[in-house]
Amino acid sequence: MKTKPKTIPVSELKKELLKNKDFRLEYNSQVPEFQVACQIIEARIKKNMSQVELANKIHSGQAVISRLESLNSKPSLTLLTKIAKALDTKINLSIG
Known about the structure:
The protein is mostly helical. The protein is 60% helix and 0% strand. The protein has helices at residues 10-17, 21-29, 31-46, 51-57, 62-69, 77-86. The longest helix has 16 residues, at 31-46. It is globular.
């Protein structure tokens, strides 16, 4: 039987990490990218979906999801739309 690894909510991890000054400065410089990554991770976990399962749903590789979630890539709106659809959610975008 496959056991699920113990996880902590992203919100708790974020709260703990923001206590570190260096992390907080870097976080504030990357807030939009970080927020997108956190929202994708939270939605994926809420759906009990692995990175591989999400990647399969968008006809992509697990590495694409991993790079996105670890802030090692900047996703296109097309990719975000595919991810939102796969997670049965929507994208809310605002400028200004």
